[in-house]
Amino acid sequence: SAELCLLPALAALLPPLPGPGGPGPAEVGLGALPGEVRAAVRALVGDLDSLFTALGLREETFAVGALSRVIAAELANYVPARNRRRIATNKASVIFVDRTLDLAGAVGHHGDNLAEKILSVLPKLPGHKTDVMVNMVELTALQTTDETCSIIAPGCLAQPNDPAAKALWESFMNLKQKEAVMEARRHLVEAASRENLPIKMSMGRVTPEQLSSYIQLFRNNLKALENHCGLLQLVLATVQTLKHPQTSKWDNFLAFERLLLQTIGESEMPSVLNQLLPMIKSYNERTKDDYACEDFFVLLIYIYSVVGEIKCGKELDIAEEKVKKALIKAICDEPEPSPLLQKIT
């Protein structure tokens, strides 16, 4: 979007977590980092310099976190960057922030944002870090219940050649979910009216079923499909996200996170973990509303990120051990572990 540029090639660049006997934050220089991290830092510095050259920028750099300080220092000492700063006409402030300093933000569910939900619940487009697969079967005469139907190429979110779709995507990123869904309906109605499709405008709450019924109007009209293909992909992404089981879980996550914040304020970490324990269920005991193993990793990262200083002691050791045992049992009982669980184990 106009305000956000992602660098997916560097998606794997994460600050090394301080382990036992590892370098402390103060000691980390580029030389102390593992080889692949050093290479990624140099690649990032080169990419940023190219970007700043294209924009004619002379930057003033700030850093928050150990790895960010390394990157800022590398950029400051990078010879091509020094030459660029001498002749650049535009000024900019650049702030680097370590991603691990805001893990609570990355795993929390506080955002009422449709773009975030679409990117979280729909499957990733193969080979992409920042785009998703949108199932396009609904726009065809081929009606199949097979979700992995690969005869029809998936749609995606990037629609650079469709002004209406670009405007709608901005709404998904910048508006609250309810307003964004209403924008999706408005764009659909306008597109259908332009194509003289028999659309009945309805007021009130927008439902995924209503959006689906509007999409169906385009199905047998090839010209209309071609003219509004980008817009239809974004609205289909909305429908599939709103109907996705993970979206209903989103509210459960939010409620549990709020409860945790209250509990953490009133009691110690062991009692928080003991609250979590009965919710960890094996595959055979789970219903569709229960949390899966990955969900517990997300919740645990959230808990340990927001709690601050943790008082060590026997009570905490016992509580942590129980949670570990329950998680290990749940992971071992998974009939088909997800790619993430396979990676972790």
From TrEMBL:
Coiled coil: none annotated. GO terms for biological process: vesicle-mediated transport. Keywords: Signal. This is SCFD2 protein. It comes from the Eukaryota. Residues 1-21 form the signal peptide.
